[in-house]
Specification:
The protein has one domain: Carbamate kinase, CATH 3.40.1160. It is 46% helix and 16% strand. It has nine helices and seven strands. The chain binds adenosine-5'-triphosphate and ligand LLZGTKA7. Adenosine-5'-triphosphate binds next to helix 1. It is found in: Cytoplasm.
Length: 232
């Protein structure tokens, strides 16, 4: 099985805690030991937002801010790599999908961050999953799925157990203003569109406990939202 796991920076590095990074590395190790080839994509988290906020106040433009965000995601990817067994994971952080796919031919695990401005690592994860023909994509984020409103803003927000990729596109497009660097949404619009065209199954879950990712991948046991291919 080939699986892409998208680990939100807000989940992996809400603060700089080596123990939390190690716990994620342990889970990646056990998924690889169970026979999974893994593409792991790491987000920028609060560090990216702090840098982006500071640079915005210094007058940087959106493209420059995105590049700062990308650099932070790659920094977080390097941090996770430091915790992974060197026999398991490719030692460098690929900067495009071709490089990532090549690494995945050689190694069980490849870890990457952002790629180009004007998107988030959600889109990187979906594009990587499509590029390497992954069987499944797991978004480990800070909320337990996709809701009909932002659950951190609306106490009545309800979680979708299951939805199609085109329903996700509509939901995200509704809530998305012109995405600016460091903005947050459950899944970005580009990622939703890639899921829509590729038909890859995705799961969105709360990845605060990395074992939730392990259970989802190994036992199909999770509390979250399953995004499936369209019905036609
Ligand atoms: N309809 C919705 N359903 C679920 N979450 C939503 C929705 N609308 C907005 N959100 C927000 O989406 C965010 C998704 O997680 P968040 O941006 O924290 O990070 P992440 O992708 O896990 O990591 P990173 O910090 O690297 O971006 C949550 O903060 C949540 O408040
Ligand atoms: O391919 C990419 C990935 C990321 N960015 C920028 O970085 C930040 C942080 O990424 P998250 O996935 O949101 O953690 C993001 O908001 C973008 O500004 C990018 O431009 N391209």
């Amino acid at each position: 099985m080939k699986t892409v796991v998208s680990i939100g920076g807000s989940v992996l590095v809400p603060d700089l805690d080596a123990g939390r990074v190690e716990a994620y590395a342990d889970v990646i190790g056990s998924l690889a030991a169970a026979g999974h080839d893994l593409g792991v994509v790491v987000g920028g988290g609060p560090t990216a937002r702090e840098y982006i906020g500071a640079a915005r106040s210094l007058g940087a433009n959106e493209g420059e801010l995105d590049q700062l965000g990308i650099d932070t995601t790659r920094l977080n990817a390097r941090l996770l790599l430091a915790a992974l067994d060197e026999d398991l994971a490719s030692p460098t952080v690929p900067t495009d999908y071709e490089e990532a796919a090549e690494s995945l031919h050689r190694d069980r695990v490849v870890v990457m961050g952002g790629v180009v401005p004007a998107q988030t690592t959600d889109a990187v994860s979906a594009a990587l999953a499509e590029y390497v023909d992954a069987d499944r994509l797991v978004f480990a984020t800070s909320v337990p799925g996709v809701f009909d409103a932002d659950p951190n803003e609306d106490p009545d927000a309800e979680r979708y157990e299951e939805m199609t990729a085109s329903e996700l596109v509509k939901l995200v497009a509704r809530g998305e203003s012109l995405g600016s660097a460091g903005s947050n949404a459950p899944i970005d619009l580009l990622a939703a569109k890639v899921l829509d065209r590729s038909g890859i199954e995705a799961i969105v879950l709360d990845g605060t406990d990395p074992r939730a990712v392990e259970r989802a991948v190994l036992e199909d046991d999770y509390e979250g939202t399953r995004i499936g291919p369209n019905h036609d």
